[in-house]
Design brief:
By secondary structure, this protein is α/β, with parallel strands linked by helices. Helices cover 13% and strands 24% of the residues.
Amino acid sequence: MKHPVRHPVKPSVRHLFSSAGSRLPVPAAVLALAITLAGCGGPGTGTAASVPSVAAGAQDVQAVAPATAPATAPAGSGPSAAGETGETGTAAEAADPSASATAVLPGLGPRTLAEIPDNARQVVVVTGKDKNSPQSQVVLYQRTDDGWTAGQTWAAHNALKGWTDDHYAGDLHSPIGVFTLSDAGGLLADPGTKLPYDRSRAFTVGGTGFEGEPLAGSFDYVVAIDYNRKPGTSPLDWTRPLGTGRGGGIWLHVDHGGPTHGCVSLTKQHMKELLLALDPALHPVVVMGDRTSLER
């Protein structure tokens, strides 16, 4: 029986305030396998994109054409277009954020808005150019007494084949939905985020992407998107509440200049800025999908 992607997972305060010290220990070999199969990787579909060799401690694991898997939480709607060049952090930056606060999050329809938890004071809106496009834009909104205030508009990449309401491992689509953001990590040191942060060599990645671009550095900074994962654990945690077939390891991570297997990618500078801005006390969520789906 097919399990729906959307289910009302509204992580508890305990999840959102988990500390790095409370994380479950994950052996190095398991970390390498997990990141290979799930951290923006997973069962491949035989495309040209080779999956990075992932170093966990002294061991390298070579992956075969991965597909980004999601992290756990409810689903909602999605994103809007990035620059035509597909370059993250260029054309989209020209579209400056609206400085004024608005009562309602722009571009989101009633169905999508209904999925955002009432306590969410930070919303990362990822709007895909269209249902089948790997290009999108990202805006961080923060709620104030006057309404929602938009941050800058950043160009981004999403999955090679665009977006889906019914994500499966290896389908090369990013899941449409509203998901909590509970945990972060990366190969580099914590830049100062308030989110629990797991620094690990297991975030090392190599190989090339769909357009032949090097993947090295893609996991320097990551924020786990809570689709099919256990909030309150490292992004490398292998727990998949919906089963491994529904994917896992859907992250916000550093852009490598091409489409992803299911994740959303931003320039390193914008990932750092996002990490510094996200605050578990404000119960951040990501709302992601193509523009039309988000307007539902």
